[in-house]
Amino acid sequence: xxxxxxxxxxxxxxxxxxxxxxxxxxxxxxxxxxxxxxxxxxxxxxxxxxxxxxxxxxxxxxxxxxxxxxxxxxxxxxxxxxxxxxxxxxxxxxxxxxxxxxxxxxxxxxxxxxxxxxxxxxxxxxxxxxxxxxxxxxxxxxxxxxxxxxxxxxxxxxxxxxxxxxxxxxxxxxxxxxxxxxxxxxxxxxxxxxxxxxxxxxxxxxxxxxxxxxxxxxxxxxxxxxxxxxxxxxxxxxxxxxxxxxxxxxxxxxxxxxxxxxxxxxxxxxxxxxxxxxxxxxxxxxxxx
Length: 289
Prior knowledge:
By secondary structure, this protein is of the alpha/beta class. 47% of the residues lie in helices and 10% in strands. The protein has helices at residues 16-34, 50-60, 65-71, 77-93, 98-105, 117-130, 135-150, 152-163, 179-191, 210-213, 272-275, 278-288, and strands at residues 2-6, 43-45, 171-177, 196-203, 229-232, 256-258. α9 (179-191) links the parallel β3 (171-177) and β4 (196-203). α5 (98-105) crosses α6 (117-130) and α7 crosses α8. The radius of gyration is 19 Å and the shape is globular. Pfam families: Abhydrolase_6. This is AB hydrolase-1 domain-containing protein. Residues 149-231 form the AB hydrolase-1 domain.
């Protein structure tokens, strides 16, 4: 059976074959922990869109928040609102008090808001101190998610790269990480019943964030061609703190969630720290049978 790995952002300039090996080695480690053999006749596909996304973002010249502040760039309101809301959600889900955010920039709590760039920068600084993710990574993460979700020309090209690796009318399993979970959801929703996805496993996913869900096709639903959907996250992963449950994804049948991943990577978000988890590997292996 085919196993499709869909990566996230910040993979530009990397060797696709090497990235695939990293994913496969982590999955093999997870299988070992679960006491399971590697499935026979496994054919892995790794749609690589890292360079394409990087090129498209650069073409659009969407600034980072640091550029907006340092160069006096006036952001367009839709981008400002989306990225401000996304960071505000991340901070709230990480249980960071408004008072701590305000104190980091000498602001008052009354100045909070996603369109107040001083407040948004204060969120980045506070998250940099309180989480291992780092302000620069969160800054570029929000930009790339915004570009993918709001520029159809970008999403069409990225989706096409991924869609051509998913077999039509042939059983497969899809594992997606980070921004790749958004890409996977959109692609599989579009392909609908033309595909036979025995299992969709999302890890480190920002799909639980309202600001992301608001930019997805409605109504939210399990893609028609997906038989089972499981979602795993580390509670310390600031972009994936929310489970995809009834409070964020009220769909039937519900998504199975596992929030006890102990992701060993520095920012608790890396793919190796998800695929080497025994529960995640067991989910994937079960769907490959």
